[in-house]
Structure formats: structure tokens, C-alpha cells
Amino acid sequence: MINNDIKIIGLIGNPVKHSKSPQMHNALFAKLGLKYEYLAFNVAAGELERAVTGLKAMNLAGANVTVPHKVDIIPYLDAISQEVVVIGAVNTIVNKDGRLIGYNTDGAGYLQSLVAETEIDLTDKRVLILGAGGAARAIAYTLGQEELAELTILNRDLDKAQALANNLSVNFPLNIAIIDEINSYAPEADLIINTTTVGMTPHTDQTLVARELIHAGQLVSDIVYNPQETRLLREAAEQGARTHGGLGMFINQGALAFAKWTGIEPDTDFMRETVLAALAAVDDE
Ligand code: ATR
Q1: Which of 32, 103, 173, 214 shows its CA 20 to 30 Å from the CA of 127?
Q2: Probe target for ligand 1 pocket from 70, 74, 156, 253, with the most ligand atoms within 8 Å of CB
Q3: pLDDT tens digit sequence for 200-231
Q4: Which of 196, 223, 226 has most ligand 1 atoms within 8 Å of CB, for mutation?
């Protein structure tokens, strides 16, 4: 039996089995003595509307939304924040007096992690984003508020890169190209960000950037965090470039969501320890 005083936060996705969000948030709730519980719900695509209705009817305090529902959930929410209008995807829901409000903390979480871990000053930097999916949209939106020298988006599907660029309004040059043109763009970039799933477990031998395109003086960032050091990051380090892995984005998007639900800014070092332990436990399985 769940005590009525306990506030429930849900994770809506498919699959949700491997998510580290329940462990990350429940460890924080326990540490802070908060009467919350984070539960993962596997929701099939055809059941999304009913799941959102149920979430509201059962008065859940909030939720995270993950693949494949981040875009499709928007019509079922009562309101969305300004960043969601541009990004077109929701990863966090807050129940405000019975109204479900959608937010996206992925882009801000990425930027917080990038700056905290690398101390990069983005002013006048040439940035290259690989990919044009949901994560790329969130990151491009957030970097769009900075004073970059230029932003280039490379994607396999050029129409998706075009759609991403059309939605952004930025004060610096914005280029798009097909991923096959990476040879002309990668060597010129100060910051290269992989937002695709290329290199993720189990395909850890894959990379979109040939090692000879990377050189010292560049920062190479990968949002993949399993493995923590992707082939892209390993080769970038071998080429003398600085690297930034994806774990910080995951932790910071969670910290920002946690703050929206509870009003408390959590300890991200503790969150990192919890997630690292959860990842290590999986390795031992
Ligand atoms: P997410 O929400 O995590 O960003 P997504 O919206 O499915 O996931 O986007 C995945 C991105 O990875 C897309 O940009 C996809 O390219 P396409 O838009 O051309 O499909 C990119 N991607 C996935 N596998 C890829 C591969 N093998 N080579 C190049 N790009 C790939």
C-alpha cells in the first residue's frame, strides 16, 4: 500500500526498464527525507493519451517523458513552456493544481554540464552539431541563446536539419548540411557535439567522425553516456582534443526536473555517484 501522503513522480516511456532515473531520483528523495516516490511506467504508443489522463486522474505530482513519447505527448498536456514551443519535445511534466505543464530540461541540462565540466566560454565559438533529432533540437535551442560565431547542423536526413534550422532564431550564421560533408566541417569547428545514438552500447565500435578530422584545440562532446567514453571521445583524446561525456547532461536534466517538482536544487555530485553505482551494477549483471 502506498501512503496517501506520498507524492508520485512517473516516468513515461517505452522501454523504461534500463532507465537510471528511478534510482537517481529515489536516492535523492531518501537522502533529503522527502515523501516522494519515482516509478517507471512502460506505456505503449497507442496508450499515451490514456496514460496522461490516468496520470492526472491519480494526481501524480509530475513525470519525466522519454523515448518515444517526448513529441507525441504535447497535445495531451494543459500547457507547455516557451522552450517546448521551439524544441517541440517534452521531458518533464509538473502537475500544478491539476493542470499538467510540459517543460524540456535537456538543453539546459546539457549546457550546464558542458560549462561546469569544461569551463568553455562559448562566445565566438564555431559549433558543429551532429544529428537533428530531439536531443539536437534541445541543444541547438539552448546554444542559440549564446553568442556563437556560427552553428552548423549535420544530419543524414537533410530535411530534418532544415526543419530544425527553420525553428531556430539566432543572431549568428546557421548552416545545415548532409552528414557526408563532415570532412569539410569538422576540422573548422571549435566544439563538435554528437547528439546521435552512434557509438552507444552495443554499437560501441561506431563513430561519425574520422579521427584525422579531430585536432588539439578542439572540444569534442558526446551525449552518449553508455559507454561513458565512446569511440568518438577516445579518439578525440588520442588526437589531443578535450572531451566531454554525456553523463553530465543526464544528471543535470534530472536535477532541473527535480527542482521543478520539489523546489529544491539537488546535489549533482550525489546524483552522479548514484548513477555511476547503478551503471556499475548493470555491468556486473
Ligand atoms: P533523440 O531524441 O535521442 O535525439 P532521435 O530523435 O531519434 O533521438 O534522433 C536520432 C538522431 O540520430 C537523428 O539525427 C538520426 O539521423 P536521421 O535524422 O537522419 O535519422 C541520427 N542517427 C541515428 N543513427 C544514425 C547513423 N547510423 N548515422 C547517422 N545518424 C544517425
Answers
A1: 103
A2: 156
A3: 999 999 999 999 999 999 999 999 999 999 99
A4: 196
Distance 30 CA to ligand 1 centre (A): 36
Listed in sequence order, the residues at least 6 apart from 13 whose beta carbon sits closer than 8 Å to its beta carbon are 19, 40, 41, 42, 43, 64, 65, 66, 67, 68, 69
Q: Secondary structure of 181-247 in the HEC alphabet?
A: HHHHHHHHCCEEEECCCCCCCCCCCCCCCCHHHCCCCCEEEECCCCCCCCHHHHHHHHCCCEEECCH
d(CA 6, CA 181): 53
pTM of the model: 0.95
- Cα dihedral sign for 194, 197, 201, 206? negative
Distance, first Cα to last Cα, the chain: 30
* 100/97 Cα distance (integer angstroms): 8
* CB neighbour burial string for 151-187, b if at least 16 within 10 angstroms, e if fewer: bbbbbeeeebbeebbeebebebebebbebeebeebbe
Ligand 1 centroid vs 68 CA: distance in angstroms? 13
* pLDDT, average across residues 193-204: 95
3-state secondary structure of 262: helix
